[in-house]
Write a structure and sequence with these properties.
Chain A: GO terms for molecular function: transmembrane transporter activity. Chain A: It is a multi-pass membrane protein. Chain A: Belongs to the binding-protein-dependent transport system permease family. FecCD subfamily. The complex is a heterodimer of chains A (346) and B (338). Chain A is mainly alpha-helical and 346 residues long. Chain A is 73% helix and 3% strand. Chain A has one domain (4-9, 18-339): ABC transporter involved in vitamin B12 uptake, BtuC (Orthogonal Bundle), CATH 1.10.3470.10. Chain A has helices spanning 20-42, 50-57, 63-98, 110-124, 133-152, 159-183, 186-197, 205-223, 226-232, 236-241, 246-268, 274-286, 290-314, 323-341, and strands at 4-9, 14-19. In chain A, a hairpin with a 4-residue loop joins strand 1 and strand 2 (14-19). The longest helix of chain A is centred in the first third of the chain and has 36 residues, at 63-98. With 338 residues, chain B is mostly helical. Chain B has one domain: ABC transporter involved in vitamin B12 uptake, BtuC, CATH 1.10.3470.10. Chain B has helices at residues 8-31, 39-47, 53-87, 99-114, 120-143, 151-175, 177-187, 196-215, 217-223, 227-232, 237-259, 265-277, 281-307, 316-334. In chain B, helix 1 (8-31) packs parallel to helix 13 (281-307), helix 4 (99-114) packs parallel to helix 6 and helix 6 crosses helix 7. The chains are: A mainly alpha (346), B mainly alpha (338). At the A-B interface, helix 6, helix 7, helix 12 and helix 14 of A face helix 6, helix 7, helix 12 and helix 14 of B.
């Protein structure tokens, strides 16, 4: 068992216990993320040593370095972290709600809806600016998830019904996407495929500012739901028994999950793997108490996207390949290793 | 769980009705399309083949297409039933053990490395082998450690390996424009343009799969009770699990080799059949064979009737999803189903 430390204060009366191991692993993950971020900013078609990166941060670097670090690479990395963290937490919430390890933001149609909307936009928008794409994708994702929720509603939403309806509606949206791809011209289709893979190519501070409010607001809102997430792991009956208004909470959490995934997909496209697997990787590292699981998922998600983008823009030079290709390529072997390492205890 | 059909008589009747429906839609699929033919013409095409255009279309396009749709629909549905039983996860689909992603990765890699010099039949083998290798890898990972293959380990290792294989596919497709256009044809599921020799090449494996699934029904009924209970009742669970996985590889791997990845059938048809007959695999498997086949033929027919006149050659997967949204959702909503 893990070692717990119980913390009690006399005034104000406060008591909680801390799982030392899970907290430690979270801390280590955070340090790793910081290292990965600094490395990622330094590496690229033009290498900038670590101290030059730090100098550029504090405004003491050369003009060229400051341009590359502050205007090109930093926004890209910041967006990567936000996108990864949002998708991972979105997935963790859904896995808890649907009580199914296969649940991910894709399950209730968020990703499929956003993708269908984006591909439709690429296909039909003649002379409309690409700037509108995130918004179009976000609206597509939100509408689809709402449709799934309402369709699954019948005197409440049972997790199982939500999942099945979600599978149907996602498939419908996937069909629409293929339909648009078939009727569009080839060069547009390759554009759309790139977007569907998910990329943080060419991200600027504008994109950071677009995504930041969503990420901060909804990741913040998730923190206040940790107690409920822990409670509902025990099943509907017990959660009701300890005083949880299940359907209300479920709606709120689905809304949070959809908003996180929708905003991330809107900005960076359909990055796969993170929403499904980052929570599982986190669970194998820190256990399933949500106070530790959510931050670990978020950090891992962010780290995976940053690393995936780093590989995409360095290993295959002169190509700058979408990060979405490499999220699974890095994440899957690591997860398999964890699966193998923890194979002896279920 | 309350099911629609309770007595043995009802279940048998509906199964026979299903078979009749299957026969009717198959005939319809052969006769109806851009050009319509009479039944007499179709029979003539096989009794007094004249080499006329209509005879050629029937024998070399409509018939293979119909047979492919039936075989693939049935196989995917049965593979779905088996995997849902193995993982005890209602969201498990045949693609879960990586067959789709593995086949796609193998085909795209083949195109990227050797160019598109191979005929379709050889590409099918590449897909089949890719599917098999990936599935074995997933099975190996899931079986590692104490407790053997547990549902959760199978689910997670399948998801991870499939994601990895998809990465390989995307990488080749984005690195080489040419590979993308070549492979795109493979990566959307379709029963169009398949020839009879392709069908006969793959169908033996599917037949073995169907027979194996029929023989395994009793063991599957015990399997879903959980490993401990099944062991207690004298079940050799490792053997049953391994056999079931092998059957899934034959069915799903064969299907993806023959028609590319067709989503949705393997998840939805098993659920549809459970609504009808409940959890007894002795009924579930034959129902899935019949209704899975009928479903995919219908989907293909629908895509020809609705989309072809719009001059669009749209893969059958699109139509399966349309039918799914229209018919399955009301069904899911209508049942008092946990």
């Amino acid at each position: 068992m893990h070692r717990h430390v119980v913390i009690r204060t006399k005034k104000p009366a406060l008591s909680f216990h801390v799982n030392k191991r899970a907290l430690g692993i979270n801390f280590i993950l955070f340090l790793l993320l910081s290292v990965v971020i600094v490395l990622s900013i330094g590496l690229g078609s033009l290498h900038i040593p670590v101290w030059e990166v730090i100098k550029a941060f504090v405004g003491a670097g050369s003009d060229q370095n400051e341009l590359i670090v502050l205007d090109w690479r930093l926004p890209r990395v910041v967006v990567s972290v936000m996108v990864g963290a949002s998708l991972a937490v979105s997935g963790a919430i859904l896995q808890s709600l649907v009580r199914n390890p296969l649940a991910s933001p894709d399950l209730i149609g968020t990703t499929a809806g956003a993708t269908a909307a984006a591909v439709a936009f690429i296909t039909f928008a003649k002379d409309v600016s690409v700037q509108w794409m995130p918004l179009v994708a976000l609206i597509g994702g939100l509408l689809t998830a709402t449709l799934t929720y309402l369709t699954a509603w019948k005197e409440g939403v049972s997790p199982f019904r939500l999942a099945l309806v979600g599978v149907c509606i996602s498939a419908g949206m996937g069909a629409l996407t293929i339909f648009f791809l078939v009727i569009t011209q080839t060069h547009k289709a390759s554009n759309a495929l790139g977007w569907m893979t998910g990329t943080v190519y060419g991200m600027s501070w504008v994109n950071v500012m677009t995504l930041l409010p969503w990420t901060v607001l909804f990741l913040g809102a998730t923190i206040f739901q940790i107690r409920y997430l822990n409670a509902q792991e025990l099943g509907d009956d017990i959660a009701k028994g300890i005083g949880v208004a299940i359907d209300k909470k479920r709606l709120l959490l689905i809304a949070i999950s959809v908003a996180l995934a929708g905003a991330a997909v809107g900005v960076a496209g359909g990055i796969s793997f993170i929403g499904l697997m980052a929570p599982h990787i986190a669970r194998r590292l820190v256990g399933s108490a949500y106070g530790y699981l959510l931050p670990a998922s978020a950090i891992l998600g962010g780290m995976l996207v940053v690393l995936a983008d780093l590989i995409g823009r360095t290993v295959f030079l002169p190509h700058d390949l979408p990060a979405g290709i490499f999220t699974a390529a890095i994440g899957a072997p690591f997860f398999v290793y964890l699966l193998y390492k923890t194979r002896n205890h279920q | 769980m309350n099911v629609i059909l309770s007595s043995r008589l009802q279940k048998t009747t509906v199964l026979i009705i299903g078979l009749v429906v299957l026969a009717v839609v198959m005939v319809a699929s052969i006769l109806i399309g851009i050009n319509r033919y009479s039944l007499a013409t179709a029979v003539e095409a096989y009794t007094q083949f004249s080499g006329s255009e209509e005879h050629l279309i029937i024998t070399s396009s409509r018939m293979p297409r119909t047979l492919t749709a039936v075989a693939v629909g049935s196989s995917l549905a049965v593979a779905g039933v088996l995997l849902q039983a193995l993982t005890r996860n209602p969201l498990a689909s045949p693609s879960l053990i990586g067959v789709n992603a593995g086949a796609a990765a193998a085909i795209v890699t083949t195109i990227a490395v050797f160019g598109s010099q191979f005929p379709m039949s050889q590409m099918m083998w590449a897909g089949f082998i890719g599917a098999g290798v990936t599935a074995l890898l997933v099975y190996g990972l899931a079986s590692a450690g104490r407790g053997g293959m547990t549902p959760i380990k199978l689910t997670l290792s399948g998801a991870a390996v499939a994601a990895f294989a998809s990465s390989v596919t995307s990488l080749f497709m984005l690195l080489q424009e040419k590979t993308m256009t070549e492979a795109f044809y493979w990566l959307v599921g379709s029963v169009e343009g398949r020839q009879l020799d392709h069908f006969f090449m793959i169908v033996p494996y599917l037949l073995v799969g169907w027979l194996g699934a029929m023989l395994l029904t009793g063991s599957l009924n015990l399997m879903v009770l959980g490993d401990d209970v099944a062991t207690g009742l004298g079940q050799k669970i490792i053997l049953v699990k391994a056999t079931a996985i092998l059957i899934v590889v034959l069915l799903a791997g064969g299907s993806v080799a023959l028609a590319g990845p067709i989503a949705f059938v393997g998840i939805i048809i098993p659920h549809l059949c459970r609504f009808l007959v409940g959890l007894d695999h002795r009924w579930l498997i034959p129902y899935s064979i019949v209704f899975g086949g009928a479903f995919l033929v219908c989907a293909d027919l629908l895509s020809r009737l609705v989309l072809m006149p719009m001059r669009l050659e749209v893969p059958v997967g699109v139509a399966t999803a349309m039918i799914g949204v229209a018919f399955i959702i009301p069904l899911v909503r209508g049942r008092a189903y946990a």
